[in-house]
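Record CHAT domain-containing protein, 1233 aa.
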Amino acid sequence: MKDPIGPLSKFPEIVSSGNNEHGPFRRILGHLRKAQSSSKLPNPELWLVHESILLYCQGKSRRANLLNLLGDLCLHSYKVFQFGDVDALNQAVCVYKDALRYAPGHDVYVADLGTSLLMRYERLGRLEDINEAIASFEQFLALVQPNDPNKILGLQKLGISLIWRFKHLGAQSDLNDSVQWFENAIALAPEGHPERAAASDNLGMSLLKRFGACGEMHDLDQAVLWGETAVNLSQDGDTYKLFRLNNLGISLLTCYEQLGNLHDLDQSVMRIEAAAALTSDNDPEKPSRLSNLGNSLLARFQQLEDVNDLHQSIFMKERAIALTQEGNPSLPTFLDNLGNSLYASYEKFGNINDLTNSIIKLEAAIALTPETHTHRAAMLHNLGNYLLARYEALGDQHDIDDAIERKSAAIALTPDGAPDKAAMLNNFGSSVLARFDQFGSIADLNESIRIKEASIVLTPDGHPDKPSRLNNLGNALLARYEQVGDLRDLHEAVKQQEAAVHLIAEHDYSKSAVSALLQDNLGNAFLRRFQRLRDPSDLDRSVLAKEVAVSLTPDGHPKKPSRLTNMGVSLRIRYEELKNIPDLDRSVEQLAAAVALTPESHPDRPSRLDALGSSLFRRYEHLNSLDDLDTAIQNMQSAVTLIPETHPKRPIFLLNLGIPLLNRFQKLHDPEDSVQLICYFTSAACSATGPACIRFQAAQYWAGHAHALHHPSLLHAYGTAIQLLPELAWLGLTISDRHHLLSQAGQVVRDAAAAAISAHKYQMAIEWLDQGRSIIWSQLLNLRSPVEELREKYSTLADELETLSALLDRMSNPSHVSRETMKPPTLQFTAEKAHEIALRRNHILEKIRGLEGFEGFFSPKKISELSQAATKGPIAILNVSQYGCDALILQPEVPDLVIYVPLQQLTMTRVEQLAKQLVTIVGGPGRNDRLGGSREGHLDPDAQFCEILLELWLKIVCPVLDVLKNHSPKPSPERGLAHVWWCPTGPLAFLPIHAAGMYGPDEPFDHLISSYTPSLSALIQSLRSQSSPSKDLQLLAVTQPTAENQDYIPGTKDEVRNIKQQVNGKTSVLWLNEEMATIQNVETGIQESRWVHFACHGVQSASNPTDSALLLAGSSRLTLSDIIKLSLPNADLAFLSACQTATGSQELQDESVHLAAGMMLAGYRGVIGTMWSIRDQDAPQVAADVYSHLFKISPPESTKAAEALHLAVRKLQEKLGANNSFRRWVPFIHFGV
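=>
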């Protein structure tokens, strides 16, 4: 197989053989002579020659010969002029194809066509060209004889073409075939053969490419070995030796990048430097060698930080560009390489001009690269990295958006099989995650995770980068957990990071720097999971992983202080869990070492000082050493001093400092400590930035200390805490996560109300209680209204408010995982940005409150609005606090009047005792059967029950009724019994206030009708005037006598039969029984019916209240979460004749998290539920009596449901005996109106 420019020497033979040809042929020969002498003809003349040969040349063989010669001249013209004229290349392909039309199967012509197609692919990157080139070389090898000397060249051309196609498509088979063809070429070239050196060089480069794809170190070792063989076989003065020196230098550079051996790097520089030095400036290969030398010098700078290497790298790459003619297809690569070195210079010196120039070089490189070229994707990706860096430096959002756009374009240009696709996806995902970190869009976070998952799918097992990519996915999942609170993300994050660490160990990378990073991140993930689930094994794993991370991090490594800090924090948390003092001593030791290694100006120094102070304070609590306490305070004061005023972490440091000061004040009674701690708590609580939970805790401590000292700021402290509740339960979190955050907030609200009552500010107490208790339901009733209503009318404002709020929270809670993008910002930068965001958020809130209909947005309801809840009758709000127990009464037709009733004989401790005692009698949440029989025990349950109800009567209900008698007209016989709505707080929510009384042996105690409400706001929602129903009254009845793993309860069917008998055709009844009671059918029926009745098993989830459910067909469950999602504008009455439908959560006493409240939230104005398990034989009778009363009038009124239930229960009392059947009749209760 000939070199395409070789046959020019045959030109005289062709000319002499054509001497007798006619005129046109002589003109053809004249053009060819001109082309031979000048090496360049204008394109039109070349096309003219082409056409002339086709028109005038006689004989297929001669025509093919001349066409092939013209192709050689076109290709020679293209190469001599440094690849500037793509038209000449296109014409060469066309001419070679024409030659084959007249001499099909000619091996030389086939090979020449393959060469021209390969060169055009290298220039334009068109897949069809490389496919045709491969087909041509395969045809050539099939045509030539086994001993043909050109076969070695053909094998190598085919191998080179396969490498190019591998770069384009990523098919591993192409790369493996390439290696095989080069090995075959070597086998055909014995020692001393002139092509053995070239084949060795090509095999080395092919093995290097395969190492890059698969990560097998054997391939890299062999690549270096064959590269050295090629150089050793080349004679000094041989032009090709310079090629081989250059290629060997590239392999050695890769070897250094993998193993970190500086000798390999020095050898790389030396080999490429020698090649460049021996190459003249007018040699077309000179620019490539200079650029490659610049790459090796850049790598050595990054290792040794010798700035002379960096300057030389830039100089070499600038020379390469200067020596490259415009139009050279390698020019974009040289510009890209120069951009890399300029970016490194920016990172070293911080000169923004270097960064700007690197972006300019990349943009120029991309502009010169055809859309279809394989290098274009990599350049777009690099440009994205530089734009991201400029965003970090200057904060222009357009840069980060442009960065992501460029990387997205790079991904789109890269097929899934391409070897770089997985790395590009990983980096792209990190960039999108970086934008989430800065701007808080959950869509970016989700997209980042999706992209990283795709990256891992494309990364083969055994690839050296797979552990890092698994770790990066784990980091993104952990970020989403921290944002959204979904435990599945937390578990998956741990799983991915465990897999990453396992792969590191499996492939013996355990001593690498990346192993320390992965172990540190895994330790943080275990710690997060422990903090959520409290599994001690997670805490042990966290400590172990962080110990490994520290041990793998050499002294002097920039990450050593952060890993010491992480280890110290995990040790302190384990001490707090297990009280093992050696853990605490080690924690102090590790954190002190971290502080000592952290420069004064480092942005993490305040955090490390604070962490050290926290561990010293814990040791003071254990050992009572004042030295530890004083040192803790000193470190924490230093942290506060170093942190700027508006930094979002400042409230955390202020709170942490205030707590040890409070302890020192309680021990030494130094009034200066008292003054300071009040100041610190106040500053933290009132900060415009910082996590809401931290500011709330600061307000809580502030209020507690103010209470103890009778400080005048007491109400201010509680008011601040109450105002923080909506942020504490921010809507961006899941409902279950909001419950997790609010588990301790109820006591603060009740204490705040007690403080307001002590100050005779009864209206303030009402407003605070309503805003504080049932905050989750208020959000779903109210914040669903303001935020969704706002979005309907002013979507931009709603989106901006949510984005800014999420940003503030995340800035003060930065991820503890080590991210692979974004430099840590300075303290001042973070402080200024947080302050700016807080001001923008306040401005947005002010703007919203200035809009018509949104005046009270994110503000508590005032008493004038709350008093509307008493439209139907008096409401008694029962507050239970460590500072006192009180009732506050609202009455109809007396707006703004709050009647105060001190419950002087009641204490919070006694209420808690009564609630626990009741649980021992009736059982706690979790039972899901309708009771089938009596309990056995040493004490008479009814006697205990009777005592509880008597105490509730004497200490709560009787004082309230006594006051009501003095403020309300005596009910006439026509009006019947008085109707009171109870709104109990805290542990009172578990006690049957409605059944309180003095029960004698012969008759029931029957003084009033009782209903409940989770909050005043919820009752106001229930009191709304029902819009004209779009459908006539229909009652949905759902029965499920059994469910998976549950006992059979036959009474459910009797229950619905009784209901139908009472309805007696006055309204339609839709009955879904057993297998018909599917989730889909039930939800459809609910939407079509104004009244619903459930007779089935019910279950209360103590661990996750929103999973409480009604059990339907098979294993299906209609959960509280499902009910909340329903929107039912015509919903009216719900009867939940199932177990525990009004049983709340012990941890969320003030959140009324039960099915009955969920039905109110879904839109039902009134709900009948049960406080605990009921008897199967009682439910049908109670239901029949309720509906009998309701259907006495037509149309029936749901507002009579409380009265109907009262009468039905009284009938049950009379049947059973009121004083020996408490557990059977007491659980039936009514909510709403």
